[in-house]
Design a protein that fits this description.
Strand order of the largest sheet of chain A: 4-3-2-1-5-6
Shape of chain A: globular
Structural class of chain A: alpha+beta
Strand content of chain A: 15-25%
Oligomer: homodimer
Distance between the termini of chain A: 54 Å
Number of domains of chain A: 2
Largest sheet of chain A: 6 strands, mixed
Helix content of chain A: 25-40%
CATH topology of the largest domain in chain A: Creatine Amidinohydrolase
CATH superfamily of the largest domain in chain A: Creatinase/methionine aminopeptidase superfamily
């Protein structure tokens, strides 16, 4: 039974169908006759992309045959949940997708992998989400699979997902709009003495109250020495006057995740810090300016990292200067000096300048849409060097 | 450089050391001379248990040798983040733990699995988190591993984790206390017209503002037909008078996750619904009463499911009536009719009565600590049949 979920923004049934068709065309080109696209709670992108189902606790996969309709594979407890969300009517429950507490569900009779392959025979099976596909499931699948090969199909799926449709871009625009509401809640209410978690809570509450379906990732607030963390989580540390407070805020809308990163300084900012921040800010603006269809991604990275090095901060670079965004706040491809692709219209990136020295670090992050001319910027709120009166 | 993280509750360095020692003793009994305990963002339990590090974006593992000190294995971007949190001083970065966008990090030189096994030689290697350990990492590890066998070590680690220490119980008590603050924010402010996400936001904001380090899982609010979902996520559906609104609220404290589940009815409750709810409520109370050290877990499940069947609602049972809780809101072991273990003092469970028919469902959920006599109940707020005036 399908439930009504009133979504202010969504991807149409037609577009979900087209995604399957485009993937089937790419599979044919790659000599695959089925793809199993796997997802987990923290890596939901692939199954959400193909089915709109968004797993929690249990894992899941979409099985896409060479021709015809796909199937959604789920665990023992997710049937009503998945049925209310999936655009793929065929739903099969397998014990392999149960949650990590691994209940036995005595008495339940679920299909096996052998049943799945009887219904969806394949000779060459591709796994998408290869890097995270569980070995335990792989072993069970391999025992039942009577075809020739099980191989990495990430490249096939990425070729389908890498440029975004109009509806996807609209979701990313809306996610950025709501992320700015979250960021504004911090800019308006942050004060020394609040803990990092409390600051993160301000943005989280504002986004959930204003149209986000969730946060794209747990909101970050990392202050003082914690600002050096390229990946972080907020702690119970109270924020203090005169130090960097790094906030990264992202809303999720219809599966699409945004992120806006800003370093804030409360009350006072010494010249050394201001100079360091200005390099980051200028590198962020520079990267946005360089993102144009036709440009080699590596060229963008080399220019931006060259600029940072020329300003004397080369040893503060960890990665970047941008990464794909869409279903995941950070998804393939990264823009790096080693990148081998050219930018194309309607690729979407989070420009992400993270710099860190031995004392402090910061990130500017802004989502953009690549166009033939200037990139479309989805976030502008507070992109300067923010020294806030407290 | 270790950062100061002011945590109101935490596990002592000494206890982290003891966890390693107890695991090494259990490994010896199981004939293992190393364990690799794997975690991801949505399944952080094992690495948090051994190191206090709590991954995000990148995956991670703790390598525990037969004797001596363990090592924390992380990805390319998590060094400062992990170093600020880990109780394990030895930290190694491997490309295999990078995030799903799979950057190349040109120029970075990280250790390989061969380097790891040179430093930590092993003949029989156990993997904990076996069900989720990525096949891609397994293949790389297998190539570098010169020992005899790589096997499932979940049972070894579970035997160490299954009863909780005083400090762990204190964390769970505090997580339950803060969860009740979240629940109260819903009870005090819920009204028809709010969306499920907005209701979830009320509890999330209250918990983050009152000492939670995060939510234990994304807060659930599922209303009307969505209440039938055993696993769920809130949607943009506005809640309505006279229908079940199911809320599940859990705070996380120092890694320990709580959960309190309550069905609420706004404004009016027909007799059919009240009768159905009363069975669930009575089954919840009955389960809590049955949880005593020495009792076979299967006996609890049989009695409670027998009671629900006797009342005529047997076809509304999906699982249960309780599951382990601790690092994860839902962790091994489940209490099921097929369980083969006896309850022991200081095991911790979420009593979880979920019943659902073709129209609606609900869950009562309450964390408890098993004692030799009556169980210690960590949550009592609003455990009755809640019909709220609106």
């Amino acid at each position: 039974m399908r439930q009504t979920v009133a979504n202010p923004m969504c991807i149409s049934d037609k577009e979900f169908g087209e995604r399957i068709q485009r993937t089937q065309a790419a599979m044919a080109g790659a000599g695959l006759d089925a793809i199993l696209a796997f997802s987990s709670e923290s890596e939901p992108a692939l199954v959400r992309y193909y089915s709109d189902y968004w797993p929690s606790f249990e894992t899941t996969a979409v099985l896409i045959p060479a021709t015809g309709k796909p199937a959604l594979l789920i665990g023992p407890e997710s049937l009503i949940f998945a049925s209310a969300r999936t655009k793929i009517p065929a739903v099969l429950q397998l014990m392999d997708f149960r949650e990590s507490s691994q209940p036995n569900y005595p008495g339940s009779k679920l299909p096996t992998w052998a049943d799945v392959f009887k219904q969806y025979p394949a000779d060459r099976l591709g796994i998408a989400g290869w890097h995270m596909f569980p070995h335990a499931i792989f072993c069970n699948l391999e025992k039942a699979f009577t075809g020739k090969a099980i191989i990495d199909a990430d490249a096939v799926v990425r070729s389908v997902m890498i440029t975004k449709s109009k509806a996807e871009l609209d979701c990313l625009r809306e996610a950025a709009r709501i992320s700015e509401i979250g960021l504004k809640a911090i800019l308006d209410n942050i004060r020394p003495g609040l803990t990092e978690v409390q600051v993160a809570g301000l943005a989280t509450a504002a986004m959930l109250n204003n149209g986000a379906e969730a946060t794209g990732y747990p909101v970050w607030c990392c202050s003082g020495p914690n600002s050096r963390q390229a990946i972080s989580r907020p702690t119970h540390r109270p924020i203090q006057t005169g130090e960097i407070v790094q906030v990264c805020v992202g809303a999720k809308v219809a599966g699409y995740s945004s992120s806006i990163g800003r370093p804030l300084v409360l009350g006072s900012c010494d010249q050394t810090l201001r100079r360091f921040l200005e390099v980051g800010h200028d590198a962020e603006e520079m990267t946005i300016g360089l993102l144009r269809a036709g440009t080699p991604a590596s060229e963008v990275a080399k220019k931006v990292h060259g600029f940072i090095k020329d300003r004397g901060y080369g040893d503060t670079i960890l990665y970047g200067p941008a990464h794909g965004c869409g279903q995941m706040e950070c998804e393939y491809p990264f823009i790096e000096t080693s990148s081998t692709f050219d930018l194309a219209e309607n690729m979407t990136f989070n420009v992400d300048i993270f710099l860190s020295n031995s004392e402090r670090g910061f990130r500017w992050e802004d989502p953009v849409i690549v166009k033939n001319g200037e990139a479309e910027q989805l976030s502008s709120l507070g992109r300067g060097v923010n020294v806030l009166a407290v």
